[in-house]
Amino acid sequence: MSCGFLNLPDDVLLALFCSLDVKDLLSLVQTCRGFYELGSSDYVWHSIDVAFPLDIPIGKDRRLISGPELRQAWVKGLRLEQSWSKHASQPRRMCRIMHGDIVFQNQFLGSDWLITLSRAPTSALCLSLWYIGTSNREYRYASLDVPYASKFAAISRKNSTEAIIAVVLDATRATNVNVYKICLDFNHDNSISHVPILVNQISSPKTDGTPGEVHICESVVAVAVAHFENIFNPPTYRFIVLEIETGNQLIISPEMPEHFTHVQFRLFPHHLIIAGLKHHESLTVRTYDFSVVRARLSMPAFCQTPDDDADATGLLGDHLTEEETDDVPVDSDYTLSDGYVCGDCPHLTSLLFHASGVSSLRYGSASVFSFPSNRDLRCPHGAMPVHVFSTPASAASDIICLGPTGRRAVWLERRWDTDSFTLMKATFFREGKHAAIVERLLPAHTAMPFEIYSCQSMAFEESTGRVCLGLHTGELYILQF
């Protein structure tokens, strides 16, 4: 039978291969050498729509990855998808790192790196970059003392040979964002290149407000600053953006809806997305065109700073789109995914937990929203959730990590009635085609070398299923599923 198919023209076979489900394609290429060679071509694997996150180099164009590499990434992805959708399971591998300090923020940077921000018993603050690419041979690659550091954001670029880290320094008189560069190239002969280098800085007087989130997209760093006029009204927000290469800075003060709180934002190559709770009743997500602002930042002749009132609000313009969810309970809190770009359009997922508080009788719930929302899942009051699932009574969800694509999430759940802690995981499917799968991350009564309640921070790598736990004992545990 296969010999007859092999006699068909290659373009016909390629069209057939591209129309197959990935699992069927992987089975087909194992039937004979001819199908294997043709089914491993770049054309076939570049044509397949990615249904879930794959472990491929950060920021690398998928079209530049060879067919065999993509096929192997799909095999790993399917295995993880099957494992992640099951009941709680033991981790395939567990790595312990004795950090020494209490890590209050950590982030995976690709498959080989982990960044931590920690506080020593002496209250000194330290930013560390760990190499975790070789099992049981993890080590601290670079470190830097950063007084007043409160949070950071990081990306890798230049084919993962360079890390850019933006650290928010919440000092007494000023708010600074220091931008560091670290070489990740092991082939570089100069060991001094591994030392973090300060390449640029955002500076703002403390009277202008309190720093919030910081994000990096390619060569642009943005930080949100909240200004509180009094304790009765919600704060007003402005955003300071910096172009790392040119050093240019701009201030953006977009008009916000009334009674807009819990503001978060995400930065994309051509868009700025701002989200928040309006009147504590609905989640509102606005998308702005960031192209003009970015072009202005890239102009070499433009060298103003926030002190020069370089207000670029007019360049940002009015929002392109505004989406509002259906009513949510007033005790809701939400988490945004980092998002991804598909067809030049940014996509985000939001996970809202509606806590049951301290009540041991009333169950809580959680909702998952996707933006842009499906028009079929809208009602007169706003976008409807693609998933809704219940949470235990008298439970609160802390340290929530939602993957960039919004397909997978992990969080720490605390039961107030029993004072017990549980690590949870979830799988969310596109457009709610299947019910969300919510399970324990680890089996109940599993003997672990640490106590769950000692978890102070958590990082999650969606494409590999790795979870990093930072404990108050000064230890880090990386769990591989």
Account of the 3D structure:
By secondary structure, the protein is mainly β. Helices cover 13% and strands 44% of the residues. The chain contains eight helices and 31 strands. The protein has helices at residues 2-6, 10-19, 22-28, 33-39, 42-47, 67-84, 291-297, 313-316; strands spanning 93-98, 102-109, 113-119, 125-131, 139-145, 149-157, 162-170, 174-183, 197-205, 210-217, 220-227, 236-243, 249-252, 260-267, 271-278, 282-289, 321-324, 332-336, 340-342, 345-354, 364-371, 378-379, 382-383, 387-391, 395-402, 408-415, 420-427, 437-440, 455-461, 466-471, 475-480. Strands 18, 19, 20, 21 and 24 form a five-stranded antiparallel β-sheet that branches. A four-stranded antiparallel β-sheet has the order 1-31-30-29, with no helix packed on it. Strand 11 (220-227) and strand 12 (236-243) form a beta hairpin. 37% of the residues are buried. Residues 305-309 have low confidence and may be disordered.
Q: What's the layout of helices and strands?
A:
Layout lengths: L1 H5 L3 H10 L2 H7 L4 H7 L2 H6 L19 H18 L8 E6 L3 E8 L3 E7 L5 E7 L7 E7 L3 E9 L4 E9 L3 E10 L13 E9 L4 E8 L2 E8 L8 E8 L5 E4 L7 E8 L3 E8 L3 E8 L1 H7 L15 H4 L4 E4 L7 E5 L3 E3 L2 E10 L9 E8 L6 E2 L2 E2 L3 E5 L3 E8 L5 E8 L4 E8 L9 E4 L14 E7 L4 E6 L3 E6 L1
Antiparallel strand pairs: 1-31, 2-3, 3-4, 4-5, 6-7, 7-8, 8-9, 10-11, 11-12, 12-13, 14-15, 15-16, 16-17, 18-20, 19-20, 20-21, 21-24, 22-23, 25-26, 26-27, 27-28, 29-30, 30-31
